[in-house]
UniProtKB/TrEMBL annotation:
InterPro entries recorded: Papain-like_cys_pep_sf (IPR038765), Prot_inhib_I29 (IPR013201)
Keyword field: Signal
Organism superkingdom: Eukaryota
Keyword Isomerase attached: no
Signal peptide extent: 1-16
Protein name: Cathepsin propeptide inhibitor domain-containing protein
Ranges for domain Cathepsin propeptide inhibitor: 24-84
SMART domains: Inhibitor_I29 (SM00848)
Species, as recorded: Rotaria sordida
């Protein structure tokens, strides 16, 4: 039964009307997007439309109870998944940094300081609101 529902959702998504220019313009204005050429903008719009279709299909499936969360457009909407991963998960440790000196050290707690068992950093004002979960 779930397979039939999922297929129906996919077919409905395939027959949806193309995205209007207004949606693309609103996306660019909302997130301050500017592109270097007409070709780049056309490519970014194609990626954005594909991502918008994925969001729409996922949310239809969520309405049917197939997912426990919904998706929405954000500032990464004109990026492919690979581009997003490269930009957001691209930590690369320097190959010049010699970490061998850190491999064998053990932390020794100071004997003249009493530390609490737990600290709630929220009450101390050190936890900031969520900034970007992409």
């Amino acid at each position: 039964m779930k397979v039939i529902i999922a297929l129906c959702v996919l077919f409905v998504g395939a027959y949806c009307a193309p995205v209007s220019d207004d949606g693309w313009t609103l996306f660019k204005r909302t997130y301050g997007k500017q592109y270097n050429s007409v070709e780049e903008e056309a490519n970014r719009r194609t990626v954005w439309e594909a991502n918008l279709a994925k969001i729409h299909n996922h949310n239809l499936e969520a309405d049917l109870g197939l997912h426990t969360y919904t998706l929405g457009m954000n500032r990464f909407g004109d990026m492919t998944h690979e581009e997003f991963k490269k930009q957001m998960n691209g930590f690369k440790m320097s190959t010049r940094t010699d970490t061998s000196e850190f491999d064998h050290h053990t932390f020794l707690a100071p004997s003249n300081v009493v530390l609490p068992d737990a600290v709630d950093w929220r009450t101390k004002g050190y936890v900031t609101p969520i900034k970007d979960q992409g």
